[in-house]
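Lecture 7 notes. Example A: sequence first, then its structure tokens.
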Amino acid sequence: MIRALRTLAPMRLTDVRSASGNVRLRRAAFSLALLGVILEFALSGNTLENLGIDYASPGGNPIIKLHPATYLAAIGCFMVLFLTKPSGSGVVRFFRATPALSAFTFMMLFCAFYSIANVGFSGAAVYVESYLAPAMLWVALDAGTDRQKRTLAWWIVGFCVLSIIISIGEGATQTHLIPLHIDDTVNKAFADDVEDFRGDGLFSHPLTAAGITSMATFMLLRMRMNGLLKGVLFTTFLIGLLSFGGRAALLTTIVIVVLAAGFELLRGMVRRDLSMGFVGAIAAALVILPPLMIVLVTSTDIGERIITHMYFDDSAQVRNLQWLVLNHLNLNDVLFGVSPDRLEMMKYQIGLGGATTDIENFWLLMFLNLGAIGFAVYVVALGLFILHLGRTANHPLGWMLLISAIVIASTSNSLGRKSTDLFFATACIIAMTGYPKTASARTGTISREQPIGLRTNQRQGLRPTPVKLLGSKS
């Protein structure tokens, strides 16, 4: 027995040291991914182009076609999967613990190579930036502690507020803080179109800003903070949605929040367990928000575009015309996708050949890029990723965020181009998991189910398992 204990003790010490090293690696990976999220806010596509980095234009060096945040997410993912001890155990856990995410990754890689084989390398960066980068970000961010994830939530809130403030200033001055970088003719057209001016804050496009603000709104409702502060931030986000001029984002966010609040109110009345704080928040929202929104819309330029475009405008006409492209497809196009040059020709044929017009539905864009065979794989892959994120959040607000994000993205071509939508959705979902349900008063343990992931038990991971000696008390 003594000989067995002598051999067991150093093994326990080695395990503790290994666990301690793994925790440090995971926290470092989270920090790198957090820096990536910050850079995604700070360096939009327009900013990179204005800095002389040919990020968004076709052709050029493929290395600079990826955002710096993508590289940071990849490094953080590599640390979690390949540098944890024992060597390679992170990869094994990745496949065992996250089957949906693993399948999504491989299916998106298949879509990328399938697209390259059929229509060429043009557009291949979309699969890395818009889809694989969020998967790598999830692996790196999920390795963080609850405290780190709450820090991430506050970083997101802070940048969203900053972007809203910038957008309001842009609307007042009719000038973009970060100049557009398309071409001189298009830039002048946007500058002269005062009636259609929209501030875009820190982002490349107002619709991107509106979509991310919508995601942050649901994340904000999950955060724990002073009720008054949460109310002020929620109101600020609604003002931001008005300022960015995204009709789909504003309407979708308000409808989902109102339906959820109404359902919670009815359920509380039936169960007779309504919280006075929740009732007070609903009453305050009904009293304050409608008059405030009316004053802002009627007395300022905020929300002017939304009010003046409440009709079938040119943007809606483009979304109607885009489906005519299906009439020009041949059998090869339907099965294997359309090359970029042929797609440009078909856009001219249906009246979408202008510099400021494009196909505004990412589902249609991905179908045209992949064809029916690849598109079927793509739809399954995206569904698996959304399912994985929803299970990660393990909260109704997480599902609301994801439903809202997909509905809003479906009104634009965001996920059919290089996009940050899923990147920020992943960041917001991970930030939500930093706010677990209240610990049980009787047992002191967390009552929520642990979301699937690669993390070890952070509260007990550093504690060596005690060796029970003969004759000792348990």
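Example B, a different protein, same format:
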Amino acid sequence: MPQISNFMNESTLLQVITEQREEVLNMNYNSLVSRFEENQFEWDSNLAQVVVGVRRCGKSTLCHKVLLEHNIKYAYVNLDDDRLYGMQTSDLNMLLKCLFNIYGTDTQYFFFDELQNVDGWHLFVNRLLRQNLHVVLTGSNAKLLSSELSTHLTGRYNEIRLYPFSFSEICEYKKISRDGISTKDSASREAELSDYLINGGLPELIKINNPHNKRNYVTGLFETIITKDIVRRYKLRDTESLHRIANHLINNNCQITDYGKLSELSGLKSNKTAQKYVEYLSQAFLVHRLQKFSFKSRERISKEKAYVIDTGFIANRENALIPENLGWRLESIVLIELLRRHRSQAEDVYYYKPTTHSKEIDFVVCRQGVVNEIIQVAYNIDDTKTYKREISSLTDGAEKLHCNKLTLIAFTDTKEIISGKYKIQAYSATNWLCMKI
């Protein structure tokens, strides 16, 4: 039996929805950057459109933009509002009534921001879908959305994974030519990429110039993800250990996760608890766990790497005493771009290192176990030793994985490299990141 809310009343809901509607009406969506994910919506289907991603990556803005551009009349409510905290399943029908009251009884499309804050939300969504109403959802926690939707909606949803701004989207926002060939255009892109490596692509962060305010923004966002998306939802008591693990993973971006070391550093009593905490951080989209390419399930799981979802989290936190490893930052940016480009195509991304002493491949892109592309990332390949190492890793991987599409991404000129029987396409990092898909 659902609990009966002791505090929620119709007048409160009407006030919140009305004020939120005014906020939306006052926003200018005409000047917004076009996002890669806009074409992934399926407006003509009867599927719930579900947009998930880390907090403040632009989920709500994306949905408003696409709905408005398609001239769709819709009702909107953001459940991540302090006045709605504690809303229960029994309040959702009153919420629907208030939405009809404000937006009109002929409304067919409903946009619910962070609806997973309400227990039992999936049952409510299922009811709306049975009534042939169209539902748009956003969420900052993958497990709550994915597991409950797959269980209760049995495939009646279209999941869209949104990431912070890509480098190409940053260039559009800042009016930097993405394909200009002049010296000025190239210099502008390279300067912007240098900034992107440090500050990332969180939409609101790129508007902040003052370093102190940048730090305050990232620190606040980091704390919100920890407290709201993890501690509150999973009722964790040991918040200090979670903070230590989160900071350690970000400080050691791109590295294999050692759960024994994590449990020791965080003061946890078991590796399983440390593994569970990393899972929570992944579900909140703060980090992405990259598995090793292997047909052995145990190897894929036990040799995972952790990548921060946005490089802006690396240096813009308090007490972030870490080296400025631009190669690892570029590697992290390339991974997120690969996920952005390939996930909607049902393709998976892994790293590859068959044995302890083997050469490591940064990324392999595959579909159903067949490798389609091998990618190596390096910040600088001017050094002869580094150049030979990267080329050798690619050709060695090509032999083992039976793949002829070899890609090298670095701060270099875009050119073709011949190594034995293999052809390697080397890309300038700015050119590759700005490629039209």
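Note on Example B: The longest strand covers residues 370-377. Confidence is low (pLDDT under 50) at residues 1-6.
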